[in-house]
Amino acid sequence: MCRAPLYSALSLLVVSTLAIAQNDAAAGPPSVAGVRALMAQGKLDDARRELDALAAMQPEPPGVERLRGIAEYESNRMAEAEASFARALQQDPSDLDSMQMRGVTLYRMGKPGDAIPLLERAHSAGLIANADPNYVLGLCYVGAKRYDDARRAFAAQYDFAPDSAAAWLVTARMLFRQELTAPAAAAAHQAVQLDPRMPLAHRLLGEIDLAGGDVSGALAELEQEVKINPLDGETYDRMGDAYIRSGQYASAQQVLDRAVLLEPNASGPYILLGKTLLEEHDPVTAAMYLERAEKMDPSNTMIHLLLGRAFTAAGRSNDANREFEALQKLLGAAASSNP
Fold this sequence. Notes:
- Residues about 1-10 and about 10-25 have low confidence and may be disordered.
- The longest helix has 21 residues, at about 315-335.
- The protein has helices spanning about 10-20, 30-40, 45-55, 65-75, 80-90, 95-110, 110-125, 130-145, 145-160, 165-175, 180-195, 200-210, 215-230, 235-245, 250-260, 265-280, 285-295, 300-315, 315-335.
- The chain is mainly α.
- It is flat.
- The chain starts with 7 loop residues before the first helix and ends with a helix.
- The chain contains 19 helices and no strands.
- Among the domains are: about 1-135, Tetratricopeptide repeat domain (Serine Threonine Protein Phosphatase 5, Tetratricopeptide repeat, Alpha Horseshoe), CATH 1.25.40.10; about 145-200, Serine Threonine Protein Phosphatase 5, Tetratricopeptide repeat.
- The protein is about 75% helix and about 0% strand.
């Protein structure tokens, strides 16, 4: 099933549609302008009441169903939004905004096959006010296993030539994000074949190998990436992870030190350094790195777990108890929000 967040550019589309007025609608009979004003202020329940009144009019004013669809979409009520956009298109088949938003809504409902023709029609009709329709369309193609079409859509978003190494690599990244490792690896290898020095291609192949448990393969790819792109902190972070998994703690510390210097505001290398130093029986230094990570990412459960272990090993029982209590609170909160 497809899952996606609210996309920033689509939010801009919604805002540009709604933000015609910033003040309360003047007292008087319901109007489309009044509904827009209410929605621009986030008063969606009031807007729905106005929309109900407008829908009861004969004839119904143009744009009511599209506005209702946007209100439902903003409320994360996807089934209701899709029905409203469908009614809007019945009333006006040329309503490209409703066509596009219905496609996006269907995608978010996990129906990429139904979304594709709507997004294709909106795009071919010239609705290119923002780049995200290409992205959503690409993800729908991925869901339908139409990977070549996905590559063309992702390439269009970034103005890449559809058969370029960059187009293959961005497609590989999107496929890997969807946990489609085999087609992701194939696309990344194609990018490398077209451009052996393509930055970040070997790093992605290393990440794919790590995900599949092939540590030696991951290290080989990541070492290739370092030769091409020696100042990428995330590559050293991934190498550190691979070295930890293979028990090469001295090598892990070396590359993670490089990662910290290149990415001082990223918590990942500090966490991995803490894990490495715990394995090397240096809990005091491990705690130092983990406390730094905790300041950056206080909701990270792994940090609290490792800090608790480090404090325990260092004989700081009160601090260890504090970290384990924080861990339990975070786990409890996560469990209550995902019953």
